[in-house]
Design a protein that fits this description.
By secondary structure, the protein is mainly α. 85% of the residues lie in helices and 0% in strands. The protein is built from 11 helices and no strands. Helix 3 packs antiparallel against helix 4 (133-200) and helix 6 runs antiparallel to helix 8 (255-271). The protein is globular and about 40 Å long. The relative contact order is 0.07.
């Protein structure tokens, strides 16, 4: 009887141990599944870039381009841009060829006319000899008078042509401002359309007011038709773009937009000989880069290295207060930032 009871206890203990081990195993697998689920949920929390904000940024970059400043346009140009460049080159070549052929034709016509004139002069000289010395002298004086009047007419014609060229240059310079004003006006409509969306995202009114005030300042600055001031006001408006992107959970850190602002600011301030501000912007650019660089993945390291060296070179030439090199090196920095942004879009 005791043996049976002992055997029953052993069986009961064995069953309990099996249940414990089974439960522990299930717990571990359950924890692994939960970790995988959380990781998947984190990946799914990334939002797409807001199309309305991208349109505002694109329009703003077009404004920089129209003003003749440094631009970072993100639309897919690729082969289309290259083809367009080749076509424009061909068109220029065709125009040059037509101009050359026109010059040749005019030269030929001019030579024919001069030949006719020589023949006429020879004929008149022969007639003059036959008719007498008096008639020849009269014709000679008449021809001399005609030549003088022709030269005077030619001189008069050159004056208006030079004036027309100067007027054309001024008209071209003035002709871009209506386009610039149109771009700024369009920004107001885009901003008005975008505000309800960021209000739903819980945007702080300070962010809204900062962008709105900067846009109003840009509008009044453009009205003065001063290119340098307009570029500075446009970049001041761009400085609030990173704050708007920070309202969304994006795969790419909004810090990259802040890098664009500082890089462009260095170029513009260097052209204005504001080297104190250039030093501040260089430090701010390096700080933003150190934050953004930590978000790069292994396959993006090569582009990151290019950007790192370009930032170093920009700091070096701007410390030497070299305007020309600051412009070149600054544009290289912006080009590398653009390449990094594209790498995030491709992922």
């Amino acid at each position: 009887m005791r043996i049976r009871i002992y055997n029953a206890k052993i069986a009961l203990l064995s069953s309990i141990l099996v249940i414990v081990f089974f439960t522990a195993g299930c717990g571990k697998s359950g924890q692994q599944n939960n970790a995988q689920l959380q990781s998947a949920q984190q990946q799914q929390t990334h939002e797409k870039e807001p199309e309305k904000l991208k349109s505002i940024e694109k329009n703003l970059e077009t404004l920089f381009e129209t003003l003749g400043g440094p631009s970072v346009k993100m639309e897919e140009e690729g082969g289309k841009g290259g083809n367009t460049g080749q076509q424009s080159t061909k068109q220029q070549g065709t125009q040059q060829g037509s101009q050359q052929s026109t010059k040749q034709q005019s030269t030929q016509q001019g030579s024919q006319q001069s030949t006719k004139q020589q023949g006429t002069q020879q004929g008149s000289q022969q007639n003059t000899k036959q008719q007498g010395t008096q008639q020849g002298s009269q014709q000679g004086s008449q021809q001399g008078t005609k030549q003088q009047s022709t030269q005077q007419q030619g001189t008069k014609q050159k004056g208006p042509q030079q004036g027309t060229m100067q007027q054309g240059t001024k008209q071209q310079d003035m002709g871009r401002w209506p386009e610039i004003e149109s771009l700024v006006s369009n920004l107001h409509y885009q901003w008005n359309d975008f505000m309800p969306e960021i209000a739903k995202k819980g945007a702080d009114m300070k962010i809204v007011d900062n962008f709105d005030n900067a846009l109003n300042t840009l509008t009044t600055t453009v009205a003065s038709k001063n290119t340098k001031k307009a570029l500075a006001a446009a970049n001041s408006l761009y400085s609030h773009i990173p704050d708007l992107y920070s309202l969304y959970r994006l795969k790419m850190s909004p810090e990259v937009k802040r890098m664009v602002y500082y890089g462009r600011s260095i170029i513009l301030e260097a052209q204005n000989d504001n080297w104190e501000q250039v030093i501040k912007d260089n430090k701010a650019l390096e700080k933003s880069w150190s934050l953004f660089r930590n978000t790069l993945e292994k396959e993006q390291q090569q582009i990151g290295d290019k950007l790192n060296f370009s930032i170093y070179e920009l700091d070096k030439v701007s410390s030497d207060k070299n305007k020309q090199l600051s412009d070149i090196k600054g544009r290289i920095v912006l080009s590398n930032i653009k390449e990094l942004q594209k790498s995030f879009e491709e992922k």
